[in-house]
Every structure is written in structure tokens, then in C-alpha cells.
């Protein structure tokens, strides 16, 4: 009917990577809110949602040019895997994984989930539209055993919900703990930093980490610490309590929700997940040469909220196991609702 807006997916050229053409998908819902992603790294390049006055602006950190994602990206918007976070000495069982952070392994190693071009196709359901990205991580990839088939589907709904669904199958026992590494800034086009945002999480415990940012194995209570976000807390207050900021795994409890709110724009992000934990990375002290919205990347420009199982789980039996086996399909999900208050 004339005038009726419809869920729409547009696929367009984005760049070239090692002679492969890279495409961007632009998903627009009936409210004209937009979700953008590319098949390189299954990177979320933009989420454009209304503020309290209806002004639609981007609320995630990203680059203007594809080359910047390849050259020097701190995993902006990317799917991270096979295993997110650090693994001490890159050692699991009899396997030696790539040591790509000093003597340790981080974010699946080199040239892997976040840096490859994924197969992709548009998927449409009644009230949501999405893109399914698929990748085969071959046996031996960065030292991991087993051929791993992974599909990450991003749906964009008419309710301004980004749904992320991950499925995986392996032909040998291996380990798997993916995340998405989107950095949020609800002010719109990063016109302000995130210090006035409030963060609230259903998390009674956090994982203590050592000087290499590896969990010590101790899950400490958040009560009476800087890590207590059980009630909404301004990031400014949290950073005052802990000036070195947060690069911290929190164990989620109860309904496993996380809320980020920006009182200035009125935008709120409500996340819900079936994963055990969220790593909060506050970008404290990140002063970089690359540009985000035409300005140098700087401290507190965004906040990454990475849902996953607790990091370095292979070395801590009390953390959820990330071992996966053949002949099963593993499924994980996180939903991100963008609304206003
Ligand atoms: C992850 O925990 C890590 C950080 O230490 C790192 O700097 C970032 O990814 C790029 O969140």
C-alpha cells in the first residue's frame, strides 16, 4: 500500500580485502531505524536509533573507511572467536594456541573470526530482517583442533532490537567462546563521551584479574566495591572509584540483563543474554591515532559490553565449560533493545 514502510535489506559494495569484495548490509526497519554490518569480521558498522526527540543517530563506534577496520581496529563491532579474551600461555590440553598478546593468547589469535570475510545471506522473517554470516574455521586454525562451522545471525526487528544468534558445530572436541565486540556510545555520533551514561547489570560477582588481565579464578562479590553496578551507576562515578577503568569480566545473575542509559539523549540499551558473563571494557586511557567521527579515538569514547562465558575458562573449573563436542549444535544468543526513557 502506498506510504507503508517495509523492513528492508540493502547490500552494497564496501571495499576490498585480499582480492575479495566486501559488502555492507543496511537493514532498515519500519521505524526507519538502521542496522549496518559488513561481511568482513561480521562487523557491526552502525546502529542508528532515535533519541528522546526522535532524532536518529549512530550509537556504536566505527570507522568511515573500510581500510581502517583492516589496519588498526580494536575489534570495533567484530565477532571475536574462536575464544574471546585471554588464555594463559595460549595453552589448552595438548594444544598450543597462537601467542598474540605477549606469552598469552587473545581473541582467537591472528587472521581469524574478526579479520576474515564471512559467507553471508539475507534472512527475512515476519517482523524482522537479518543477515546470516557463516564461516568454517579449519582444523588447526590458530592451534585450535577441529573443523568448526559457525553461523552468526544478526536480526533487526521493528522494535529496534538487534538479536545476535550464534550456532556452531565441530568435528573434534574443541573450545569455543565467541562474543561481539561492539562499543556503544548512546549520545549519537559520539558527540559526548560515555561518562554521563549509567550502567546497570544483574551481576553479584566479578572475576578478579591479574596484571596480565587474566582471571585469577576468584569470583569476588561486587558489594561495596567499584564493581557494584546492581543499581544504575554513572560511569563518571565508577571511574572515580576505579581510575584505571574497567576491563573486567562480570558473572551475570538472575535475568542476566545489562542496561546502559544516556540521560542527555534519553537513549537506553537493554541487553539480555543466555551467556554466563559480560566483559565490560570502558576504553579508559585509550588514546589512539585513528579517527572516530573525525576525532582521534580517546578515553571513554565508548564502552564495549561483551557477552560470553568467563574468560580463561579452560584454566578455572568453576567457570562454565567452553568445551564443545562433535555431533551437537551449540546455540547462544544476546539481544540488544534500543529504546528511550
Ligand atoms: C578486549 O579485554 C580486551 C581489552 O584488554 C582489549 O584492549 C580490547 O579487547 C581491544 O576487550
Automatic annotation (TrEMBL):
Catalyzed chemical reaction(s): alpha-D-glucose = beta-D-glucose
Record-annotated active site: 181 (proton donor), 306 (proton acceptor)
InterPro entries tied to this protein: Ald1_epimerase_CS (IPR018052), Aldose_1-epimerase (IPR015443), Aldose_1/G6P_1-epimerase (IPR008183), Gal_mutarotase_sf_dom (IPR011013), Galactose_mutarotase-like (IPR047215), GH-type_carb-bd (IPR014718)
Binding annotation for beta-D-galactose: 181-183, 247
SUPFAM superfamilies from the UniProt entry: Galactose mutarotase-like (SSF74650)
CDD domains the UniProt entry points to: galactose_mutarotase_like
Annotated Gene Ontology cellular component terms: cytoplasm
Pathway terms, separated by semicolons: Carbohydrate metabolism; hexose metabolism
GO BP terms: galactose catabolic process via UDP-galactose, Leloir pathway; glucose metabolic process
EC id: 5.1.3.3
Keywords, ordered alphabetically: Carbohydrate metabolism, Isomerase
One Pfam family cited in the UniProt record for this chain: Aldose_epim
GO function term, MF aspect, one: carbohydrate binding
PROSITE patterns assigned to the protein according to its UniProt record, in alphabetical order: ALDOSE_1_EPIMERASE
Keyword Isomerase: yes
Record-stated family: Belongs to the aldose epimerase family.
The name this protein goes by in its record: Aldose 1-epimerase
Protein source organism: Carnobacterium viridans
Amino acid at each position: 500500500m502506498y506510504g507503508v514502510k517495509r523492513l528492508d535489506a540493502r547490500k552494497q559494495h564496501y571495499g576490498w580485502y585480499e582480492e575479495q569484495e566486501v559488502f555492507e548490509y543496511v537493514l532498515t526497519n519500519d521505524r526507519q531505524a538502521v542496522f549496518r554490518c559488513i561481511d568482513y569480521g561480521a562487523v557491526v558498522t552502525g546502529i542508528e536509533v532515535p533519541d528522546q526527540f526522535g532524532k536518529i543517530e549512530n550509537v556504536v563506534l566505527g570507522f568511515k573507511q573500510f581500510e581502517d577496520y583492516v589496519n588498526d581496529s580494536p575489534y570495533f563491532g567484530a565477532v571475536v572467536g574462536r575464544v574471546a579474551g585471554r588464555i594463559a600461555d595460549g595453552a589448552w590440553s595438548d594444544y598450543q594456541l597462537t601467542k598474540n598478546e605477549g606469552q598469552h593468547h587473545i581473541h582467537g589469535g591472528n587472521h581469524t573470526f574478526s579479520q576474515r570475510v564471512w559467507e553471508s545471506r539475507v534472512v527475512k522473517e515476519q517482523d524482522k530482517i537479518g543477515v546470516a554470516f557463516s564461516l568454517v574455521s579449519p582444523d588447526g586454525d590458530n592451534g585450535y583442533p577441529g573443523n568448526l562451522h559457525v553461523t552468526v545471525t544478526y536480526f533487526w526487528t521493528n522494535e529496534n532490537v538487534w538479536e545476535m544468534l550464534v550456532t556452531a558445530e565441530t568435528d573434534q572436541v574443541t573450545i569455543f567462546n565467541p562474543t561481539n565486540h561492539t562499543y556503544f556510545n548512546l549520545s549519537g555520533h559520539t558527540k559526548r563521551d560515555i561518562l554521563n551514561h549509567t550502567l546497570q547489570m544483574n551481576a553479584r560477582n566479578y572475576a578478579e584479574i591479574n596484571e596480565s588481565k587474566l582471571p585469577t579464578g576468584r569470583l569476588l562479590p561486587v558489594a561495596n566495591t567499584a564493581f557494584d553496578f546492581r543499581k544504575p551507576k554513572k560511569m563518571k562515578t565508577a571511574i572515580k572509584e576505579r581510575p584505571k577503568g574497567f576491563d573486567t569480566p562480570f558473572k551475570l545473575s538472575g535475568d542476566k540483563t545489562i542496561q546502559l542509559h544516556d540521560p542527555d539523549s534519553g537513549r537506553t540499551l537493554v541487553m539480555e543474554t543466555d551467556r554466563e558473563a559480560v566483559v565490560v571494557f570502558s576504553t579508559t586511557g585509550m588514546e589512539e591515532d585513528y579517527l572516530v567521527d573525525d576525532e582521534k579515538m580517546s578515553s571513554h569514547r565508548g564502552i564495549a559490553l561483551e557477552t560470553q562465558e568467563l574468560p580463561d575458562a579452560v584454566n578455572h573449573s568453576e567457570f562454565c565449560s567452553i568445551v564443545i563436542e562433535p555431533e551437537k549444535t551449540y546455540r547462544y544468543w544476546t539481544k540488544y533493545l534500543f529504546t528511550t526513557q
